[in-house]
Amino acid sequence: MDTLNLAENLIRLRREKEVTQEEVANFIGVTKASVSKWETKQSLPDILLLPVIASYYGVTVDELLGYKPQLGKEQIQKIYHDLAAEFAEKPFEEVMDASRKLVKKYYSCYSFLLQISILWLNHYTFAEDPKSQMRILDETVELCTHIIENCKDISICNDATVLKAIMDLQRGRPQEVLDSVEDMLSPYRLASQSSGILIQAYQMIGDMDKAVSYTQISMFLHLLSLVEGATQYIALRAQDKEACEETIRRMDGLIELFQLERLHQNIAAVYHYQVAVYQCQQKDIDGVLARLKRFVEIICDLLDREAALHGDGYFNRLEEWFEGLDLGKQMVRDKKLVLDNACQALENTVFSPLMEDRRLERLKRVLTEKRETL
């Protein structure tokens, strides 16, 4: 009960009402000593008395207890980033248990549960074994299902549906993914082709500031989507050298043109890594090492930055949007875990032909030394 601030609220409400402990006791039908003990945390009122006390002060029982089942955006951000930092410092199960307790405490705060789902999705791979990882994925799916079935906010439900689909992919259940999001994400739906509607509407009412901002956001998201799509395309068409080489040529030009290695390091790093995997399959060792070098340089640059999301001289209207995102501009994982993932990426067995190459060893050493600065 202490965490509910009952004692503090009893004192505050009594003083606001300008009554004595004796007057409160007389109304409720208890002794003055009982009221005193409630206010000094020596004892708790009988649960049947809570509605009577709340009625006396003109508040709800939740308000009397100080129970706040809903968290604000800034509170959610802080909890998320605190837990993400703890995943890098404390035993995995200890942090998971702490997050589970928060889920039970705020089980009706669906925006919070959504972010916890994202937290678990971003960290489940750090569980000690595949069985534990699958158990966490199952828990996360259950949490998303709870959101979808009970939340009245359609946008939160849609996000939970997409998150659940991502986890179903990780659980090896592609048919469930198709059943849940095929229609929602279909390129044939008007919603997937309607990004310009808001921009035109803001322009027509004379709100040029929002029109320009939304245009930049749309351009930025489409740019990221194009590079992400190309990265997947290279993986899918790895046996088609002509298609892959042309995709790489075009994306290299696009990334340089929009300075994506500085604008969005994560997208650029993943792209270069996938190209390195493709070039290894082509036995282009020098090409592989050149791409991995860029991968390492971009990761190091990302770790040197305070915020993971930022604009630049061209995309200069994104800051307000970044600030408005559920998790803000910060990384969804702690920097140490990002670095650990990068180190693991260089150990991929696909690069086994290079394991004795000194150039690869130097890249690994760069990441190892980087950890000492975090």
UniProtKB/TrEMBL annotation:
Domain spans labelled HTH cro/C1-type: 10-64
CDD domains, A to Z: HTH_XRE (cd00093)
Gene Ontology molecular-function annotations: DNA binding
Keyword annotations from UniProtKB, A to Z: DNA-binding
PROSITE patterns, alphabetized: HTH_CROC1
Highest taxon in the source lineage: Bacteria
The protein, known as: Helix-turn-helix transcriptional regulator
Species of origin: Clostridium scindens (strain JCM 10418 / VPI 12708)
Lineage: Bacteria, Bacillati, Bacillota, Clostridia, Lachnospirales
